[in-house]
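Entry 12.
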Amino acid sequence: MKKTALAILLAAGLFLLAGCGSTGDQTAASNPLTAAEIAGKLQDSGAFTELTAASDKVFEKYLMIETAGLEDHLMLTDATRETAEMIVLVKVGRAEEAEAVRQKLDDYLAEQKALYRDYQPGEMSKLDQAAAEVRGCWISLLVSKDTAASRKALQGMIK
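Predicted 3D structure (tokens):
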């Protein structure tokens, strides 16, 4: 009887700890949307041109983030490279992992700025307004025609 009660208590404790992060922020855990659903809604907002999903191999190569340990991820870019627009969404398992991912997205953004400075200088205003942001276990990088609108739309989906 005592062993059964202990097993139930341990299972309940593990269930409570299984949420995202140890800071008490359960926003991402209660968010039922996937990265693909979030990106679809962002594209529907009209703040982005038509974007194409990158493969996991491209995601890992350009962002320097291994996909194996991620809860969810997605990278959408302009396949023609005519615009710098992109949506990058990453969900980590623990909030403590978010800062390292944010830094890698900031590094990637810096690389994009260096590339577009000479290639498409008209895109620099989009890149200059962009920054990686952390919301619980979600990390995002949005580069769009209207960065303020795309961030506001994202806030409505990931609180």
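Annotation: The chain has seven helices and five strands. Residues 5 and 96 are 32 Å apart (CA to CA).
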